[in-house]
Design goal:
The structure is a single chain. This protein is of the alpha+beta class and 525 residues long. It has 14 helices and 19 strands. The strands form 4 sheets. Strands 1, 8, 9, 10, 11, 12, 13, 14, 15, 16 and 17 form an 11-stranded mixed β-sheet that branches. Strands 4-5-7-6 form a 4-stranded antiparallel β-sheet, covered by helices on one side. The longest helix has 18 residues. The radius of gyration is 24 Å and the shape is globular. The two termini are 35 Å apart.
Length: 525
């Protein structure tokens, strides 16, 4: 779980859901190749709460219909989409200009203009209880400077303005003026400028979402499918049966249990930004966690490799830093083997020769059966750290309320591994309101590095961000455990699928024809 969390034949005949038996019956003649009828079917594990791009979860459910201003590619690079150019107009990263693509129309016929973008962004900023607004930056105002140009004015320096306008952070998913006139309709119909448009007649809310080709899309060469069908199959066995029988062409964020079987059958596997599992040492004002030596002891008390193997079947990666390798701000973080003797020595140096007792909050929502929390409890005990485990239910409120009330000294949680590094530090891990810093602990050196990074770009920004990550890691406010992946399985003839793991959520709908997914053997691919 993170705060911030993710189609070639419809999985329907006369009903809207697939039966497991029907899928298994077809498995003996299964093929890892997708059908070539122009329909791409993705099976999701959960239904979206809405198709409103400002609030949709999983957000990727609406990417077929809503193109962002700036596209974050699967390799992490930023590419032109509805915006063709962007730049800061000052040297403090407080004034950001966007130039829009000319001649673009929304699926409902409205024109893409600076006024339309301003209205869509302002609506996003003003939505009540919008958790994702924290990634927008401190926006003072939006100024329309021309038919296709606008400038965002920030109250504080914001080095990640472009990233905030990508599909991952929702604000840049532009809604047409017609859609904004009837905002209640946005929960069930789409008004975007993306490659597809939701077909309300064929869609069954909570079960099957059918997107038809948008003939008004600005780059028809990038539209590789006649239709995209996104179905909901919570059961892992049903997902695998659908893939093997040819009723689904892709499984989105599927169970790790499906991976080995599908790979053996010849299906394509790729992984993308899952969660960085952490032990958040929250009570840094009280004993014993106020001691840096005590916090450091935790990092030597864990056997991350055994956790990755035993709990995640080898499909997780041991983590030693807040930031994964290859991400902005990453550095050559030292691999730390479990060393219980060193952990006990650190506790002794901190004045705790007999060990310590720490309460840990654990949620069944992202740690089913509290398996990870229990493993942490057992491993920490070997170093003289006794864990009083408080297990709560799956509801987010069951976890958030006692966490924010600081009822427990620490908590096990997962931050999105695909989050932009600056966002991860300033919004999720350390900044105001961060769940990993409920007591608002401050460090002068880290504050200085982040403040200086906020006004920079290019190499200077990268250097300061890397220093900030190293400083944060050295404070041991959180103990990285493993990075879990989101698992994707696809028919072997789906084209342009990344062959290596990517940091952010996987997207099939790039605005560039050489990047958007297709099916080999069809005329459009």
């Amino acid at each position: 779980m993170s705060l911030g969390s993710r189609t070639v034949r419809a999985i329907v005949a006369t009903t809207t859901t697939l039966t497991v038996g029907a899928g298994l019956a077809a498995c003996s003649g299964s093929s890892p190749a997708a059908q070539t009828d122009g329909t791409f079917t993705i099976a999701y594990t959960q239904a979206p709460n809405s198709v409103d791009p400002a609030t949709a979860a999983p957000a990727s459910f609406v990417w077929a219909a809503y193109e962002p201003l700036i596209y974050r590619d699967n390799d992490g690079s930023l590419r032109p989409a509805l915006a063709t150019k962007w730049k800061y107009l000052d040297d403090k990263n407080k004034t950001f200009e966007i130039t829009l693509r000319s001649g673009v129309t929304f699926s409902d016929g409205d024109a893409l203009t600076a006024d339309a973008v301003k209205a869509s962004v302002n609506r996003f900023l003003k939505l009540p209880d919008n958790a994702d607004v924290r990634y927008a930056g401190d926006i003072d105002s939006i100024e329309v400077t021309g038919k296709q140009t606008l400038v965002i004015h920030y109250g504080r320096s914001n080095p990640t303005a472009a990233v905030s306008l990508t599909q991952d952070y929702k604000m840049g998913l532009v809604i047409s003026p017609t859609g904004l006139k009837n905002q209640d309709s946005l929960a069930a119909e789409t008004h975007g400028a993306g490659q597809y448009v939701l077909d309300k007649a064929d869609t069954v809310s909570g079960s099957k979402y059918v997107f038809k080709r948008n003939d008004a899309y600005w780059n028809q060469k990038a539209v590789k499918f006649d239709s995209v069908v996104q179905t909901v199959l919570p059961d892992a066995s049903a997902q695998l049966s659908a893939l093997r029988s040819g009723q689904a062409d892709a499984l989105w964020n599927t169970s790790a249990d499906n991976v080995a079987t599908a790979k053996k059958a010849g299906f394509t596997y790729t992984s993308a930004g899952g969660d960085l599992q952490l032990l958040m040492l929250e009570d840094r004002k009280g004993k014993p966690l106020n001691s840096p030596l005590v916090r450091e002891a935790f990092t030597y008390a864990l056997d991350r490799k055994s956790i990755a193997e035993a709990i995640y079947g080898g499909l997780a990666t041991p983590a030693y830093s807040l930031v994964g390798s290859g991400s902005a701000g990453s550095y050559d973080a030292k691999e730390i083997e479990q060393d219980t003797a060193k952990a006990r020595q650190l506790l002794k140096q901190a004045g705790h020769p007999d060990g310590i007792t720490v309460s840990v909050l654990s949620s069944g929502g992202w740690d089913p059966n509290h398996t990870l929390a229990t493993a942490l409890q057992q491993q920490l005990a070997k170093s003289g750290i006794t864990v009083e485990l408080k297990s709560v239910g799956a509801a987010l409120s069951d976890f958030i309320t006692p966490l924010m009330d600081t009822k427990y000294q620490s908590a096990q949680f997962g931050l999105s591994a695909g989050a932009d590094t600056y966002f991860q530090l300033t919004t999720n891990a350390y900044g105001t309101g961060a769940l990993a810093n409920v007591q608002q602990t401050k460090d002068a050196e880290l504050d200085s590095l982040l403040s200086r990074a906020a006004t920079e770009q290019g190499d200077a920004y990268d250097s300061l961000l890397r220093q900030a990550v190293e400083r944060y890691d050295s404070l041991h406010y959180v103990i990285p455990i493993v990075t879990t992946n989101s698992h994707y399985l696809l028919a072997e003839n789906i084209t342009n699928v990344p062959t290596t793991s990517v940091q952010q959520q996987l997207s099939a709908f790039a605005p560039d024809a050489d990047k958007s997914w297709g099916i080999s053997g069809t005329s459009s691919s």
